[in-house]
Write a structure and sequence with these properties.
Elements (H helix, E strand, L loop, with lengths): L13 H7 L3 H7 L18 E2 L2 E2 L4 E3 L7 H9 L4 E7 L12 E5 L13 H4 L1 E4 L7 E4 L8 H13 L6 E6 L9 H16 L6 E4 L15 H15 L4 E5 L5 H11 L7 E4 L3 E6 L14 E6 L3 H18 L4 E5 L5 H10 L3 E3 L2 H4 L4 H7 L2
Helix pairs in contact: 2-3, 3-5, 6-7, 7-8, 8-9, 9-10
The chain binds flavin mononucleotide.
């Protein structure tokens, strides 16, 4: 891996990446004279769309590694037709201490991790030996600039999209100490309004980060997500809203999530999955990431593709069963053109890759070339 440089450099701090990134091929793509991506015109046909917006290929990068408009613009130029702007908040929010990323090595021969398996709590080896097919952990704590900084930058990011390309803003609510449930709901609506003010044509609301206490995610409470999306809808009107979900093991809970959101007309799609939480240990069995509350961390990349495909297939089955119309954005472990196709075959209308794209800046071009 020595001469390869991911566009988000895991050996630097989040702040350095924000100020100096992107790196590698993405930095090259930003240099003068490099215009919109030529390969971006290799179209799937005029019918491809993402929440009502026309796209060349419904493939891109989910919330996370694209920190600001320089990253999203570089992603467009590298042929990723969907570029998600990393999750923003209603207020400035600090990042977890460095390091934020480690390589993860599950025991299975194919490198997979299965939701609910004992390995997740016994410990998975994590270190700095990055190998392909790549699996990593990410522990950032969803940092955000203040709206004064991210609003003008998000506006610039939206304007940099080429024909058939869509900037996807991502946001989430912030739970601070002493906040009532009503205030927590209102914070989501406020943040959605701030996103709308940038000229966003659609948005994704993240409900899959550990906001609700240790290992407790907002998406594990479908009725609260339903109330939040009602409040958000009041602010954003007709702008399509997608909800980002973590892996939800129970079909009953997943169906309740669909009924309490899509069923009420507040949500037009789901993006899934986020990371899978695992205990991370070093070669001596000690906690791999330094600091309190970081014994478990989210794993993404190759290890979680089976879980992502499973979630997408189950969501597609619920869509069919209930006869409801909503979009499914498949995420998790996409590292090759075959993985893109597997998600489409499982029922995803669009597909995104975070870890796979970080380690292969040519991934969108490869998928387009394979078609
Ligand atoms: C560096 C990094 C940062 C991330 N930050 C966010 C985030 O801010 N909001 C979010 O909804 N998901 C975030 N994610 C999760 C990704 O959107 C995605 O759901 C997950 O990584 C699984 O996809 P992958 O296997 O292609 O990486 C992040 C992922 C990575 C790798």
């Amino acid at each position: 891996m020595s001469d390869f440089e991911p566009f988000y450099d895991v050996s630097r701090s989040y702040e350095d990446n924000y100020e100096q990134g992107p790196f590698g091929a993405f930095a090259e793509a930003l240099k003068d004279g490099n215009g919109a991506d030529a390969a971006g015109t290799t179209s799937e046909g005029a019918s491809a769309s993402f929440l009502g917006q026309p796209v060349n290929l419904p493939f891109g990068i989910p919330a996370g590694p694209l920190l600001n408009s320089r990253f999203t613009t570089a992603a467009f130029r590298m042929g990723f037709d969907l570029a998600t702007y990393k999750t923003v908040r209603s207020r400035a929010w600090g990042c977890n201490p460095f390091p934020n990323v480690l390589a993860v090595h599950p025991k299975a021969a194919d490198g997979s991790l299965t939701p609910g398996s004992a390995e997740l709590d016994e410990g998975v080896l994590a270190d700095t030996n990055y190998e392909t097919p790549i699996s990593i952990s990410n522990s950032f704590g969803v940092p955000s600039q203040s709206p004064d900084a991210w609003q003008p930058d998000m506006r610039a990011a939206i304007e940099a999209a080429g024909p058939g390309q869509v900037l996807v803003p991502s946001f989430q609510g912030s739970r601070v100490e002493g906040m009532s449930e009503e205030e927590y709901i209102a914070d989501h609506a406020t943040t959605a309004r701030l996103v709308k003010e940038t000229g966003a044509k659609l948005m994704v609301m993240n409900t899959s980060c550990p906001n609700e206490g240790h290992n407790r995610l907002l998406c594990h409470n479908p009725l609260l997500v339903g109330r939040i999306t009602e409040a958000v809808k009041q602010e954003i009107g007709d702008i399509p809203l997608m909800v980002k979900l973590a892996y939800i093991p129970s079909d009953g809970d997943l169906e309740l999530m669909v009924r309490s959101t899509v069923g009420h007309g507040t949500v037009q799609g789901f993006s899934t999955i986020n990371t899978i939480s695992a205990k991370l240990v070093d070669a001596n069995g000690n906690q791999a990431l330094p600091g309190a509350g970081r014994d478990h961390s989210g794993v993404c990349g190759n290890a979680i593709r089976g879980a992502g495909l499973d979630m997408v297939a189950r969501l597609a089955a619920i869509r069919e069963k209930l006869g409801l119309d909503f979009a499914i954005n498949g995420v998790g472990g996409v590292v090759s053109p075959a993985d893109y196709q597997a998600y489409r075959d499982a029922g995803a209308d669009s597909v995104m890759s975070a870890t796979g794209a970080m380690w292969d800046a040519e991934l969108a071009h490869k998928i387009k070339a394979s078609r």
